[in-house]
Write a structure and sequence with these properties.
Number of helices: 26
Strand order of the largest sheet: 14-26-25-24-15-22-23
Strand content: 15-25%
């Protein structure tokens, strides 16, 4: 499976300010999509708009957002930090709570209602209904000027209605008389409604919703901490070595440069305790590097000259000189952050339905509230009863829970995945992983160590002297693990120059040495041409069983000279990984270009269900497609460039991050540490995240389906309605935050 994006060739992001609910995000998104040639999606949780267009005009897009009543600016790595809304909300909640508590107590408990208590309540409640609720009033007014309504509109109308009703009752009605008492009924029958004030509703609803928004904002911030940590892991400056003219040639000096001035090939000095500024190769020094933020690996990794290192990781001890191999957006850390952020900005199919509902939710609720008021005025016991039901309807309806259902779960799930070294590409991957019933694994480098070792050889005695020289000379032109093992085994033999070397991926390599045509590869490949096989090599050459070995044969000018048998041991954690996949009721298939014998030997050791051997790199796509034609939902695990097409073909592609960029780009899930034991954990995390999204959406829909009719029916006091609305969003966010406690285990649970 591969992710799809709009056909437009460029994408940009805008930071959106002023969104306070899911309806706001839906309105901004709708406005942006009216711009010709633009496809946009707006994420309420991350407060970002992602826009695809052939030639995006940032100023026009920002202007369109402002027309919708919000502020926007182009997102960039050096964008100024957003204001700390958490601190501002906390202050507003604390002050409002101090005023609200005595208001609620005096309004609810007749025993403490001294003469004139209602006027004290008015004095305490007015600051809350005005200053405390000011964010709601301001947002409602801005949206009203644009002919729009949001969640804040509902809250503002409800608070103002309760306040104005109370002022009317106090000044013109009988509620202001000295000695008046009032008791609050949570579920009051009609005959108990009297001449009441609702200042406790105005104050408590404001405070409850402020508290809910504070908890929601703090939880969203916490859910996004993993991405923030990734972004903050990058360094702002690098200490580089520059050559300058000296009295006797050039001399090296160390100088500090901004990270954006770092070039590929720059030599960087990394002191103990410093972060490595960019991806590179160690030139000098040895140390242990803490890669936990990037790979989830808690044990520091030993590095020495020639070792690749990742930017953003921490040099524990020892001075290192690192040559930059990647800079800027091409670094591993930047690509990780891009994948995580892209995933967090995605939307599940169910969320798109929720967004459509949120877009029309507020106007419908306002109309419903008006109809409730009119209906109870006509058929109800009193105007107060009608008022209570109308205000409760306004306040209890909550589209925010709908809007937060997917984004907060994605924030928490993808953030936790990044901490574990697992990158989820987005909701599409989560939805696809839910139905996976078959996991396809490559053998070499995935299930096995990939470090081939020579077991024994069979060589024609007439060519013993030149066999290894020709073999090593030709294989030295290849980077295949088998070629590397052969070269390492016979590194001291004489080497010849090779002309016209070319590889037939998955089969072998050929070239010209001293004017002679030389081919090294599988027996079936060599047999495709004219091949003379000495009698004493015939049995070995034609034996395709091979048991635990992989055989590589050498032919010169159409004559077989001999063969080498290599073996590759399973990774220590491979058997436990297969057992964990079986525990999830998944079929495991070994897909390899190796011969049937070695493949079945490894499968037998690990308990793998099915073997598909002798498959070329191009054939891997056909093999995955064949499994899908059988009705299977396939997850493909791979780490090489030859795996990328199969990863894209599978329903879910799982790329091991120790492999190539092409494989990682094709994967729906990337395991940055490259450990196969993380595969069950990755599938479990994807399943858990999708389950959380579905649970959130169910709660959000169920809450509104149940709560709104209760409010319309006049059953609920507006105070209870406000509390329920505030904590419906809090429930969704805190439910999502449970994903941050997800644990990686061998069983992938």
């Amino acid at each position: 499976m591969s992710l799809t994006t709009p056909d437009s060739s460029h994408s940009i992001q805008l930071d959106i300010e002023g969104m306070t609910c899911a309806s706001c995000a839906q309105r901004v998104e709708k406005g942006l999509n009216t711009v010709p040639g633009v496809t946009a999606t707006v994420n309420y949780a991350t407060e970002k708009a992602t826009i695809w267009a052939a030639e995006p005009d940032v100023s026009a897009l920002v202007e369109q957002v402002e027309k919708s009543g919000y502020k926007a600016r182009a997102h960039s790595a050096d964008s100024p930090p957003k204001p700390d809304r958490v601190a501002a909300l906390r202050r507003r909640v604390l002050i409002s709570s101090i005023f609200t508590l005595p208001v609620v107590v005096l309004s609810m408990v007749p025993l403490v209602q001294f003469p004139g208590w209602q006027w004290v309540v008015l004095a305490l409640a007015l600051p809350v209904a005005t200053w405390g609720a000011w964010p709601f009033h301001r947002s409602a007014w801005v949206n009203a000027k644009h002919g729009q309504a949001t969640m804040d509109t509902l809250v503002s109308i409800g608070v103002l209605a309760a306040t104005l009703w109370s002022l009317y009752a106090l000044i013109l009605g009988g509620a202001g008389e000295i000695g008046m008492t009032m008791s609050m009924h949570l579920f009051a029958p009609p005959d108990q409604i009297g001449n009441e004030i609702y200042l406790e509703v105005a104050a408590a609803v404001t405070t409850f919703i402020l508290l809910g928004r504070y908890l929601e904002t703090r939880a969203k911030r916490d859910a996004g901490k993993a991405l923030a940590s990734l972004l903050e892991a990058g360094v702002a400056e690098a200490r580089v070595i520059r050559e300058i003219p000296g009295p006797e040639g050039t001399i090296d000096i160390e100088t500090v440069v901004p990270i954006d001035q770092l070039l590929v090939g720059s030599r960087c000095v990394v002191r103990p305790g410093d972060r490595i500024p960019t991806d590179g190769i160690v030139l000098e020094g040895s140390s242990a590097v803490d890669q936990s933020l990037v790979t989830g690996e808690s044990v520091p990794v030993e590095v020495q000259p020639g070792t690749s290192v990742i930017g953003g990781t921490i040099n524990s001890h020892g001075r290192l000189v690192v040559e930059a191999s990647r800079v800027g957006a091409d670094t591993h850390l930047a690509r990780m952050a891009t994948i995580v952020e892209r995933a967090q900005n995605g939307k599940a199919r169910a969320q798109r339905l929720a967004d459509q509902i949120s877009g029309v939710f507020v106007p419908i609720v306002i109309v419903l509230s008006i109809l409730t008021l009119i209906g109870w005025l006509i058929f109800g016991p009193s105007a107060e009863w009608a008022f209570r039901a109308s205000v409760a309807t306004l306040i209890i309806a909550c589209p925010c829970a709908l809007g937060l259902a997917t984004p907060t779960a994605l924030l928490a799930g993808t953030g936790r995945g990044a901490e574990l070294g697992i990158l989820l590409s987005g909701p599409e991957a989560l939805e696809a992983s839910r139905h996976v019933d078959t996991v396809v694994l490559d053998k070499t480098g995935t299930l096995t160590t990939g470090s081939m070792s020579v077991s024994h050889s069979v060589v024609d005695t007439e060519h013993e002297d030149e066999f290894w020289s020709y073999l090593v000379s030709l294989e030295s032109t290849s980077s295949h693990p088998i070629a590397q093992a052969l070269v390492a085994h016979a590194e001291h033999v004489r080497s010849y120059p090779v002309e016209g070397a070319s590889a037939d991926a998955g089969f072998g390599v050929q070239g010209t040495i001293e004017g002679r045509s030389v081919r090294v590869g599988r027996s079936t490949w060599l047999s495709e041409g004219q091949l003379s096989v000495p009698q004493h090599l015939t049995d070995a050459f034609n034996d395709q069983r091979l048991d635990a070995y992989t055989a590589v044969w050498l032919a010169v000018d159409g004559e077989l000279w001999g063969g080498v048998y290599l073996s590759d041991e399973p990774k220590p954690q491979a058997a436990a990984t297969i057992a964990a996949l079986h525990a999830r009721n998944l079929q495991v298939v070994l897909l390899t270009g190796d011969s049937q014998g070695p493949a079945e030997h490894v499968a037998g050791q690990l308990g793998i269900d099915r073997v598909i051997a002798g498959v070329s790199p191009e054939g891997k796509v056909d093999a995955v497609s064949a499994l899908q034609d059988e009705g299977h939902r396939v997850a493909m695990v791979g780490d090489g460039i030859n795996d990328a097409p199969a990863l894209a073909t599978a329903n879910v592609g799982i790329a091991l991050g120790s492999g190539t960029d092409q494989a990682m780009s094709a994967g729906d899930i990337t395991i940055t540490r490259g450990d196969i034991e993380q595969v069950p954990t990755a599938l479990a995390l994807a399943s858990k995240t999708l389950g959380t999204i579905r649970g959130n959406l169910f709660w959000a829909f169920a809450y509104n389906v149940v709560a709104i009719p209760l409010a319309v029916g006049g059953v609920l006091n507006p105070l209870i309605a406000g509390a329920a609305m505030a904590f419906s969003s809090v429930f969704v966010v805190t439910n999502s935050l449970r994903l941050r406690r997800f644990r990686a285990t061998t069983a992938g649970a």
